[in-house]
Design goal:
Number of strands: 0
Distance between the termini: 51 Å
Helix content: 40-55%
Largest sheet: none
Number of helices: 4
Shape: globular
Order of helices and strands: HHHH
Structural class: mainly alpha
Radius of gyration: 13 Å
Oligomer: single chain
Length: about 90
């Protein structure tokens, strides 16, 4: 039987830190996702969209708190923090 390692809040935080997001050591997934979105909107965050896709492709091993944070704050964003669903001319 294969045992999969769960992606928890610490893993999620570490992945965002690796992209360049400065996060408190004790940041919960919700805080991590909100801060990543803010950074992406302020200065861009190369790799954010790819990370979100990668993690959401592994939903079976994502802890619910991480999945909920991603869905609430990061789904549909590009690396600049803009919604990919929005039209190019929308405000």
């Amino acid at each position: 039987m294969m045992i999969a390692e769960l992606i928890d809040g610490r893993d999620f935080r570490d992945r965002l830190v690796a992209l360049g997001v400065r996060l408190p050591e004790d940041a919960c997934p919700e805080t991590c996702a909100r801060m990543a979105r803010l950074k992406a909107r302020e200065v861009g965050l190369p790799g954010l969209a790819a990370l979100v896709r990668e993690l959401m492709d592994k939903q079976e091993v994502l802890l619910p708190s991480v999945q909920q944070a991603i869905q609430a704050h990061l789904m549909g964003l590009d690396d600049s923090g803009e919604s990919r669903a929005a039209g190019k001319g929308s405000a």
